[in-house]
C-alpha cells in the first residue's frame, strides 16, 4: 500500500516538473511578432494612452457633427434664429426709425423705402450688407455705410455723386456725374446750369471732356454744351452760339483747343456772329459765317497763323 502511494506521488511530482520545464522551455523558444501598426505607434510622439484619448475625442466629434448635420437638415438653426428675431422685435428691437446723413441734393425717400421695406426688420438679424447693396443701386449714391443704433434706429451715411452735366439722348434729359452715371431725369423746364452733352455714349465721355477743357481754362465757363460725334470726337457749343469742331484723338483735340483759345484771346472770335469754327484739319482753320454775310459762307486760313485775323472776319 505504502509503496503504491510512493509510486503514485513520484509520478505526480515527475509530471508537474516535466510540465513546468515544458512551459518554461516554450517561453524561451517563442518569439512574439510585431505588426506594422506597432511600428507606426512607436514612431508617434505620444503614448498609447494619449492616442486612445485622441481616438475617443474624435469619435465624440464625429457624433456631434452628425447631430449638427441632422439639425441643419431639419432647419432647426433657422427656426431658432427666426424665433430669436421675433423675440427681439417683440422686446422693441425692431427698425422703427431711419437717420440719413450726407444727403444734400438727392431725394431721401428711396433710402427710407429700402431701409423700412425689409421683410425682416429685427435689429438683431437685419442683413446690413444686403441693405447697403440695394442703396448702392440708387443713382445718386456713390457709397453708403449702414449701422445699428439700438434699440430701433438704423443710421445711413451716404456719399453723394456730384452732377457735372446733363446728358441728352433719345429725346430724354438725364443728370450725370463725371463717370457718366445717370443720377436722375431732368425736365426741359428745370434745366440746371450745367453743360449739355449730346449723343450716344456721350455720358461715358464726360470725364474726357472735362480733361479736354482743362487745357483752355478761359473757355470752360463759356461752354454751353458738347456733342459726341460718331463716337470719336467733340463738337463744342459756346454760350454765344458758335460751334467748334475738334479733330479726333486726345492730343490733336487738345492742341486744336489751345490754338483756338489763343486766337480768341487775340482776335475775339467768340461773340462776333460766326456760326462755326472747324479745326478738324490741323492745316486749315475754317470759319462759317451766317448766310449772306462777308464774302461767302466760309473762309479758310492756316491754323498755325494765330496772330492775324482770319480771312472773312473783317467787320
Overview of this protein structure:
With 315 residues, the protein is α/β, with parallel strands linked by helices. It has 3 domains: 42 residues; 68 residues, membrane protein fhac (Ubiquitin-like (UB roll), Roll), CATH 3.10.20.310; 139 residues, Cell division protein FtsQ/DivIB (Rossmann fold, 3-Layer(aba) Sandwich). 38% of the residues lie in helices and 22% in strands. The protein has 8 helices and 13 strands. The strands form 2 sheets. The protein has a 10-stranded mixed β-sheet with strand order 6-5-4-7-8-9-10-11-12-13, with no helix packed on it. Strands 1-3-2 form a 3-stranded mixed β-sheet. The N terminus and C terminus are likely disordered.
Low-confidence stretches: 1-6, 8-28, 295-315
Give the assembly state of these chains: single chain
Structural class: alpha/beta
Helix content: 25-40%
CATH 4th-level superfamily of the largest domain: Cell division protein FtsQ/DivIB
Shape: elongated
Return the domain count: 3
Amino acid at each position: 500500500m505504502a509503496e503504491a502511494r510512493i509510486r503514485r506521488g513520484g509520478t505526480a511530482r515527475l509530471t508537474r516538473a516535466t510540465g513546468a520545464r515544458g512551459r518554461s522551455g516554450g517561453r524561451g523558444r517563442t518569439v512574439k511578432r510585431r505588426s506594422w501598426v506597432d511600428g507606426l505607434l512607436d514612431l508617434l510622439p505620444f503614448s498609447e494612452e494619449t492616442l486612445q484619448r485622441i481616438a475617443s475625442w474624435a469619435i465624440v466629434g464625429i457624433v456631434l457633427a452628425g447631430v449638427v448635420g441632422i439639425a441643419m437638415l431639419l432647419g432647426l438653426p433657422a427656426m431658432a434664429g427666426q424665433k430669436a428675431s421675433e423675440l427681439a422685435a417683440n422686446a422693441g428691437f425692431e427698425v422703427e426709425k431711419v437717420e440719413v446723413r450726407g444727403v444734400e441734393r438727392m431725394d431721401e425717400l428711396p433710402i427710407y423705402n429700402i431701409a423700412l421695406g425689409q421683410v425682416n426688420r429685427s435689429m438683431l438679424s437685419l442683413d446690413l450688407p444686403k441693405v447697403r447693396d440695394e442703396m448702392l443701386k440708387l443713382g445718386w449714391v456713390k457709397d453708403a455705410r449702414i449701422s445699428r443704433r439700438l434699440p430701433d434706429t438704423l443710421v445711413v451715411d451716404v456719399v453723394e455723386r456730384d452732377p457735372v452735366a446733363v446728358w441728352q439722348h433719345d429725346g430724354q434729359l438725364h443728370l450725370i456725374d463725371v463717370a457718366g452715371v445717370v443720377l436722375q431725369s431732368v425736365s426741359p423746364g428745370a434745366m440746371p446750369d450745367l453743360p449739355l452733352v449730346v449723343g450716344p455714349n456721350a455720358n461715358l465721355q464726360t470725364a474726357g471732356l472735362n480733361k479736354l477743357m482743362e487745357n483752355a481754362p478761359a473757355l470752360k465757363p463759356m461752354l454751353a454744351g458738347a456733342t459726341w460725334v460718331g463716337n470719336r470726337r467733340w463738337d463744342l457749343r459756346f454760350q454765344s452760339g458758335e460751334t467748334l469742331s475738334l479733330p479726333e484723338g486726345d492730343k490733336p483735340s487738345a492742341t486744336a483747343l489751345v490754338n483756338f483759345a489763343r486766337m480768341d484771346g487775340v482776335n475775339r472770335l467768340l461773340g462776333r456772329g460766326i456760326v462755326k469754327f472747324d479745326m478738324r484739319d490741323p492745316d486749315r482753320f475754317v470759319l462759317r459765317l451766317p448766310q449772306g454775310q462777308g464774302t461767302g459762307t466760309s473762309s479758310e486760313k492756316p491754323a498755325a497763323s494765330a496772330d492775324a485775323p482770319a480771312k472773312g472776319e473783317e467787320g
